[in-house]
Amino acid sequence: MKRYPVAPTTESELLERSHALAGLTLGEIAESVGICVPHESVRAKGFAGILLEQVLGATATSKPEPDFQLIGVELKSLPINALGKPRESTYVCTVPLINNHDIRWETSTVKRKLTRVLWVPIVVETDAPIADRRIAMPLLWSASVDEEAALRHDWEELMDMVVMGELNRVSAHHGTWLQIRPKAADSRARGRSTNTDGTPGVALPRGFYLRTSFTSKILRQHYALP
DNA sequence: CATTGATCATGT
DNA sequence: ACATGATCAATG
Asked: How much is the average pLDDT of A27-50?
């Protein structure tokens, strides 16, 4: 294992680097770059994703842009069970709660992030040490025409409600593939929002998430899983 | 047991 | 406060 401090300049370079990780455990990868793996899983949320960013040379850390800015590719780690089924939904980006009247799907952060994604599946066994989680075969992916249309439909439906100031009526039940859920330190967190009458207000920050049914479909299509 | 709502860590 | 990286844990 080698660390790549330099951002990949082509997709194939990124794919090559990611393929070199397949079969390795998080412990092995972390050791190769001199990082300690957390022992408590509750304290390890996000650990795998950040480790992969480091090792693969991502540059857009903590920015509302694809991780690999140079080539427009978003990196997503994807926890799966032994059968290849995703265990969790996938966070995409924050939901804009203010100045959102003019936004369109074409220029949305959701679309920019999901245009090109490097999925890195990680086999997560319950009650096994985090260091033992093993990288499966990464997949460089784009939404098909149908998939993008479906995502766009969800996004427009959800954002229509948000723009109308009906955020309080939006729950994780809405959306076929894309959903809106809380994205905050805790349920008391508040950020700026816009009320129904257009006046400034505050609300619990939200994020867009991809349902496991969507990511599961991706893996089934590309890897011929049950 | 799948899903929703809550939560943890870190950088700007 | 807001953005990133996500997973936990209560609930139906």
From this structure: 96
Model pLDDT for residues A161-178, shown as the tens digit of each residue: 999 999 999 999 999 999
CA–CA gap between residue A183 and residue A208 (Å, rounded): 9
Please determine, for residue A1, whether its predicted confidence score (pLDDT) is greater than 80: no
Two tokens at A14? 């990124």
The residues with which A208 forms a beta bridge, in sequence order, are A93, A180
pTM comes to: 0.96
Chain B: nucleotides below 7 Å from protein CB are 3-12
Q: A110 vs A92, A106, A115, A221, CA distance in Å?
A: 6, 9, 8, 22
Evaluate whether A165 touches A197 at the Cβ level (below 8 Å): yes
- Taking the C-alpha atoms of residue A178 and residue A201, their distance in angstroms, rounded to an integer, is 25
In angstroms, the first-to-last Cα distance of chain A is 32
Domain borders along chain A are 11-222
Instruction: Identify the CA nearest to A137 among candidates A37, A2, A18, A10.
Output: A18
The protein footprint on chain C, as nucleotides within 7 A of a CB, is 1-9
Top-tier CATH class for A11-222 = alpha beta
Q: Tell me which protein residue sits closest to nucleotide C1, measuring alpha carbon to C1'.
A: A191
For A212, phi then psi, to 5°, come to -65, -25
